[in-house]
Every structure is written in structure tokens, then in C-alpha cells.
Amino acid sequence: MTAALPAYSNHIGGASRPAIGGGWLDSTDPATGRVWARVPDSGPEDVAEAVAAARRAFPEWRAHSPARRAAALHRWAQAVGEHAEDLARTESRDNGRVLRETRGADLPGGALHIEYNASLADKTAGETVDLGGTASVSTFYEPYGVVGVILPWNAPLAMFFAKVSGALAAGNTVVVKPAEQACCSVLAGCALLEEAGLPPGAVNVVAGTGERAGEALVLHPDVAKVHFTGSTATGRRVTELSAEGLTDLSLELGGKSPCIVFDDADLDAAADGAAGAIYTGGAGQSCVAASRLLVQDSVFEEFTARLRDRARALRVGAPASPGTDMGPIAFAEQYRKVLSYLELGPKEGAETVFGGRHGPDALSEPDPDLSEGYWVEPTLFAAEDNGLRICQEEIFGPVAVALPFSTEEEAYAVANDTGYGLAGGAWTRDLARARRAVAAIDAGTVWINTFRRLHWAVPFGGRKQSGNLPSNGRDALREWLTLKTAWIEPG
Ligand code: NAD
């Protein structure tokens, strides 16, 4: 381990702290394959300290009026805006997301998400129930207390801002366990919390592996609610663990989203949309990637040719370079997983329509400094059978499968032939067909003539094995609140 590497610390009770056990984990720059920073390898003892700090902070934070909580969140959003450039660069270095995305979308979007959640701080009213007679019966919503938030690595800051501001707006205090593979940006941003006037302990961040720090957070008896974002497999494990204390649980999980291209679609717009939703959007490391392209047979050749043109024009390279469209896969294990699907596709009988190269061969221009990076070329397989593993399993990389269909009914049947239900969409100029597609696709969000569009004010959430809640929008506030009924008799 090189002493000169930056070391990012946990944030507990308003102070920067290494892990109590003294352990560190390496964080790798996926563009070079070289370790560039260290993060704490925290364990149950660090989680216990963070939960205790959050418990201590809860009475004060909860006692603040909604207006005062909102004011603190506004100050936090402002501080995020002032430090956006540094934070965006840190995240880009850490997980390979192109700077254009972190600086152009995640950071400004994150600050606006905090502002939006601040505006919800006083929207916790319940209802009055009229029973006749003299009883006064009403419901209202209360914060849980200490909530645990577990984050993935693909867009850590954007999710940190969204989840933590929602939890705080509702009056909770928070312990966050970001993903060990990419948490430097979140840890770097913690210094802004108390600067913005949030009480020490209102937000605590503990870095470490899922098995040690993540499980300890889910199992901690003082954590009243866990909000988990990550893969469906880990979501299942977290669900099992939460059964121990019957801890309330929200899940935002994986996807294998179908993008249907009908023969009446604007094929250029559809090709642009698909390229953005599976290649440039986080190099396919996006829960709402358009990973299955269902294309009507009469336009199959034409559409895939246009998508190939777009893919060939994309520049794969250093995330911070202004001309880069696609960065690397975020870390070595995920890279190996994506490569295993590149091998699996042809073995399962899929045709490689374009792409398939990896390592330095996938770079748009040779660069010795990037030769050990985790590069994957934008890739398209064509297959007839939606039952193939490449059509059913979340690859989480710039790899799509195109499946031809002939009738609208067939398209919907294939679209829904998946365990996931996060999102889906269709490209068509026919308004009646658009309405039918919205009704027929069994997913939390259905896009028409667009894809992978998210906004803090628009509810978003999965069905089936993709999760159980709306995030974003007003309804998301309820995820951070628990219902209470008051039944008052005059005596
Ligand atoms: P992951 O499930 O491997 O890890 C997510 C988090 O869970 C990490 O912080 C990890 O350390 C932690 N974890 C791992 N094992 C744990 C355990 N046993 N107990 C408690 N915590 C544990 O997911 P990932 O690879 O980091 O992220 C990619 C996945 O996240 C994809 O499936 C993607 O679709 C999904 N995702 C979903 C959404 C959404 O909004 N639905 C958003 C982003 C990412």
C-alpha cells in the first residue's frame, strides 16, 4: 500500500474516523486498473457507533419544525452545488462514470433532489376519520427514528443525496453504508453536512463490505427501517436478515428492461434513445438500462444497422476527457462478470451484431495509461429466444440483446417474460398503441418515445423482483414515515 494514496474516512457523529479495527480497503481507478485511494474496512463495531450517534441526534432533529429541517436541507443543497466540481471528479475517478454525467447530471440533479425533498418536509399530514359521535380520530405520519441506507456503486452520490435528504426531510436520522467498490465521493462529501448546519450524528456514513458492515446495519436492533438499493440477489439476502428483527424494508433492485421498437417508430429517435439507454448511460451500469431491444421484424435489420452506426460513433475512453461518451466498467469483479456474458452469448447461440471487444481493444484510441482499464465495447447480440441467460439475467454493462417479434401481442408477451419489473418502453407514432403499451408492460415505469428518463419529482420504482417502492416524487416521502392513529374520546 502506498502511503501517498488518499484515504477517505467514515463520518460518525460529525467527525471523520477510520475503522475501529484499523482495516482499509483499496479503491481502484477502473480506467487504469490501479489502486488510487483507500476506504475504511468497517465492521459491526463501527456500525454500532454510527447507530448510537444517529440515536443521540434523533430527538433534536425530530424536534425541529419542518421549516427548520427544510432550511438545513436547502443549505446542504447549496453547499453541494458549491463543491460540485470536486465531487463529480472524485466519483468519476472512483467508478469510471464519465465526468459529463457526474458533473452534468448527477451533481446538479442531486442538489435539486435535496431541494425537492426539503419542500416535502411539511407534507406529512394524514387524514381525519369521521365515525360520527364525539370521537376524534385522525392519522398522521411520524419518522421511524434511525434509518439504515445501503447504496450501490453505480451512481453513489446521486443516490446518497436522494435517499438521505428524503429520510432527513421526514425527521429521521441516518446511517449510510455505501458500496465498498466506489464510495470515495460519498465519504468526500460528508464534510459538507455539518458545515451546512445539520446536527452532528444526523447523517453518518460507514464504509465497508456488505458482509461485515452491511449485514451489521440490517441486523442492528436500533435501526427501525432499512432502505436497500442494489442487486436482486443481495436484496433477497437483506430480506432474510431483516426477518430477524422484522425490520421494515424498502427495496430498489435490478432490472432487465424491455425497449420495444414498433415498425411505425421514428427509427433514428429510437436508435438514439436505445444507444443512450444501454451504452452511454453509465456504460450500461444502470438499473434502467435498455438491455432487451424488442424490434418488429420488418424493421429489425434497419434498426440494428442504425444502432450500430451510433455505437461506432461513441468514444470509449478516459472518463474525465470532454469527448468521452463511455467510460469503463466500475471495478474488476464486475468487469469479469460482463466478460463472462460476452463469452456466453455466442455459446448460447446468439449472433454478435456488433461489438464484443474488451480491454485496450475496446478503447477508441490506444492509450498506454489506460491499457489495464476495464473497457468493454458497445455490444449488441441478436437472439430469437428470450429464454437465453443473456436475455434473462442482468448483465449491467454495455451489452444489449435484440429480439425480433412480429405482432404487438407477441412483443408484450416477450417484454413481460422476465422476473424483473423495473421499467420498459416502446417507440411508436401510434397514440392508441402507446396507450396499449403502457397498460401491457408489467413494470413500474413505462416510457413512450423516450427511455431511461428519471426526475426527482416523478415516482419511480420496481415490481416483481425489481423492488417494492416508489422512490422519487411525493410518494417517496412515505418510505421514511410510519403511520400513527390517534383516537381521542372526550372523556
Ligand atoms: P450489490 O447488491 O452487490 O450491493 C449493493 C450494496 O449492498 C453494497 O453497498 C453492498 O456492499 C451491500 N451488500 C452486499 N451484500 C450485503 C449483505 N449481505 N448485507 C447487506 N448489504 C450487503 O449491488 P451493486 O452491484 O452495488 O449494484 C448494482 C445493482 O444495483 C444492480 O442490480 C442494479 O440494477 C441495482 N440498482 C438498482 C437501482 C434501482 O433504483 N432499482 C438503482 C441503482 C442500482
Task: Describe this protein's structure.
38% of the residues lie in helices and 20% in strands. 53% of the residues are buried. The protein is an alpha/beta fold and 491 residues long. The protein has a seven-stranded mixed sheet, sandwiched between helices. The chain has a five-stranded parallel sheet with strand order 9-8-7-10-11, sandwiched between helices. A three-stranded antiparallel sheet has the order 5-6-21, with no helix packed on it. It is globular. It has two domains: 264 residues, Aldehyde Dehydrogenase, Chain A, domain 1 (3-Layer(aba) Sandwich), CATH 3.40.605; 198 residues, Aldehyde Dehydrogenase, Chain A, domain 2 (3-Layer(aba) Sandwich). Nicotinamide-adenine-dinucleotide (NAD) binds next to helix 8 and helix 9.
The percentage helix is 25-40%
The CATH class of the largest domain is Alpha Beta
Principal-axes geometry comes out as globular
Task: Detail the poorly predicted runs.
Answer: none
What is the CATH topology classification name of the largest domain? Aldehyde Dehydrogenase, Chain A, domain 1
First-last Cα distance: 71 Å
Question: What is the rounded Rg?
Answer: 23 Å
Q: How much β-strand is present in the residues? A: 15-25%
The largest sheet has its strands arranged as 14-15-16-13-12-18-19
CATH superfamily name of the largest domain? Aldehyde Dehydrogenase, Chain A, domain 1
CATH architecture verdict of the largest domain:
3-Layer(aba) Sandwich
Q: What kind of sheet is the major sheet?
A: 7 strands, mixed
Number of helices: 15
- How would you classify the helix and strand content by structural class? alpha/beta
